[in-house]
Amino acid sequence: MAELTPPDRNVSLDDLLKANKARFDRIFETQMGESARLDSDRLPSSNGDLEVRADPSNETDGGGTASTQSHPWASRAPAAGAGGSGSPAARSGDSGSPATPSPRPGSAAPARRPAGDTAAAALDPVTLDLIENALRNARHEMDAVLFRSAMSPVIREQHDEFPMITDPQGRMIVGQFGSYVSEMLAEQAFELEPGDVILQSDPYKCGGAISHINDWMVLIPVFFEGELVGFSSMFGHMMDVGGPVPGSMPTAATSIFGEGIRIPPIKIYSRGKPNRAALAILMNNTRTPEMNYSDLMAIIAGSRTGEKRVIEICERFGTDVYRSACQALLDRTNRAMRTLIVKNLPTEPQSFEDWIDDDGVGNGPFRMRLTVWREGEHAYFDWTGTDAQSPGPINFYLHEGMFKMFIGVYMIMVFDPQILFNDGFYDLIHVTLPKGSLVHPNFPAPLGCRTHALARQFDVLGGALSRHAPEMATAAGYGSSPHFLYSGVDGDGQSFQLMEILYGGIPGRPIGDGMDGHSWWPLFENIPSEYLESYYPMIIEAYASVADTGGPGRHRGGNGVEKVYRLLEHGEISIHDDRHRSQPWGILGGKPGAVSEKWLIRADGARSPLESKVDNVKVAPGDRIVFRTAGGGGWGDPLERDPTRVRADVCRRLMSAEVAKREYGVVLSGDSFVLDAAATENRREAIRRSRGPLPTYDFGEPEWAREPLPEAAD
Q1: Rounded (to 5) percent helix, strand, coil in the chain
Q2: Which of 417, 402, 631, 618 lies closest to 504, judged by CA?
Q3: What is d(CA 302, CA 296) in angstroms, rounded to the nearest whole number?
């Protein structure tokens, strides 16, 4: 087998991709063709029902909120004398909504059984355990294949991608982001067959299943012995999808039409054959065609890995056992979530609100308000009171299923991390998303910078849940998704384009301190400095935790990070961030974290601040960008923190001796920071006498006035 072209110091990533593309295509198309031929002589008998939610055209019910609707969607056997090899495996409606085909002769139309139904077939516990762990491993193997195959740093290094394996009804069994199958297929008529690969990137064409056009989503139907047994899917962030600025997330966009190319659901492969015309159009509308192509093929390869593993499970245990196992896993999560809801949610409605600083085009702040309560074992989440959609691109077109997923992630990780995360609890969660609001904007509202609302919703969700039991809740985190983008043409005429996601302070928690400089999405990672310096014209002069940026508390908030880029070529930069004016709030006496800050330091030493959302900033060789992210809020009274832990923070340069004394009442002396126990006790007692009652929530001093939140209910 021929070796791939080796890299050298003067070869760019795009050069490598171009040199090896033809060989890669030959191998990949051969494999796809083999997949399509597996079941060429057999037809699927049934694909069950898919639950299809609201039509993505923003139709609403009488209350003005996004509604849900269930439609049966079953395959139809071909009539006698019609069809044959290669006939439709499954068919969705021709008008954007699923058709309701006639049941097969002599059989009743299959009915979608909700999670929680105990009528599942008997299943051996050991077999269930084997299938569960096989699916878990398959989900992680999908990640591994993608990370080894992708070329962009945002996927390969930072892991901005999300895998999923579903049952035949489209319900996620394992994965990260909740199922979007029914929304995706409701928009477009397809005949699903072995070897098909569906691609799409338009949030408005899938009910918000993905939230901006940089995310390219791949869906592969999984067939075994002619029967649809599920779907394997992944989506990942593309480096560039066209539009006016490199990176395709313009901070000044006022319409999604100004952000880049939107891909409706299309077959990018049909029975193993690539849709070359569609691929050519897509690659002609990006500044990084080779990188996008490689990343797309890597996403498809990762999805096919999930497909292969599901087929192997069916080969070993049979489809009946596999289906029963999928239902049992959904049922188990459903039962566990019922317990969490009853134990942790209030019966009386509790509201909480937080704010996004601005929308990048001069408007703001924007309120995000959530009300939470339960009725029996069912939970209700109402975003009424959230501000109207913004003119700028911070809108978050929130898919109802996605928000249910966020709720599940939060509650499972906070209250019981051992629970398998899947779609089994969705029928227990009821969501109100006001039409035309920041969390459910009308088309064609811009969505490119929606990560600020996406991240801030976790702070709002945590705050709303904390009203019932604040001692069990966290404070607020850095509440954003900081992005740094740098692009240009180097001295050798080679273009370059970088997008990096930075992280900040995780909030203080009931069980301990918040993590310093960590992602709010737990599986994301940083890009190694060595990678950045090897492939991009820059030097990373500093990358460190910023002392004192975490909010003081019994369990302090995590510190933000400071990254200093020295740029070596002419180009342009963009910055996306928030928490520039509002501090991440502390809880139960904990103090708020510090805000984010950015500066441009010219080669001659001139220093100027940068806004949190800005594009098209011209830079020259020798210029430096100082990028500081926000810290996390503190949890509990700082005076209750063990003085030895405060000293350890000072010794590790996570906290200054001045803050240790002022906020924690801990007195340290000398270069070795010797703890003065007597002076510490006196200092703490003096602080206690001079201060008033501790607030449940401490928002600090934002740059705008707002009504104070009421104290948590007893």
Answers
A1: 30, 20, 50
A2: 631
A3: 10
Q: How do strand 266-270 and strand 197-200 relate by DSSP bridges?
A: antiparallel
Rounded to two decimals, what is the model's pTM?
0.82
Q: What is the DSSP letter of 554?
A: S
DSSP string, 40-99: TT--------------TTT-B-TTSBB----------PPPTTS--TT--S-B--SSSS--
> Which two three-digit tokens encode residue 274?
């690539």
Measured between alpha carbons, how far is 356 from 340 in angstroms, rounded to an integer?
29
Secondary structure element (H or E) that encloses residue 300, with its range = helix 289-317
Number of H helices, E strands in the chain: 13, 24
Cα separations in angstroms, 645 against 83, 586, 652: 73, 19, 11
For residue 222, which phi and psi values (nearest 5 degrees)?
-105, 120
Concatenate the DSSP letters of all residues of 114-128 into one string. Answer: PTT---PPP--HHHH
d(CA 594, CA 319): 54
Instruction: Please write the tens of the pLDDT for every residue from 7-50.
Output: 444 555 566 666 666 666 666 666 666 655 555 443 433 334 44
CA 600 → CA 264, 485, 613, distances in Å? Answer: 39, 14, 14
- C-alpha–C-alpha distance, residues 161 and 139, integer Å: 12
Pairing label, strands 172-175, 538-545: unpaired
Residues 378-428 pLDDT 10s: 999 999 999 999 999 999 998 788 888 888 888 887 778 788 889 999 999
Query: How many CB atoms within 10 Å of residue 592?
Result: 30
Distance CA 291, CA 489 (A): 16
> Cβ distance 620 to 603 under 8 Å?
yes
CB atoms within 10 A of CB 422: 28
Residue 318's Cβ-side half-sphere holds a number of Cα atoms within 13 Å equal to 5
DSSP 302-356: HHHHHHHHHHHHHHHH-HHHHHHHHHHHHHHHHHHHHHHHHHHS-SS-EEEEEEE
Supply the angle between the helices 319-344 and 125-149 in degrees, to the nearest 10.
90
- Give the whole-angstrom CA distance, residue 668 versus residue 649: 12
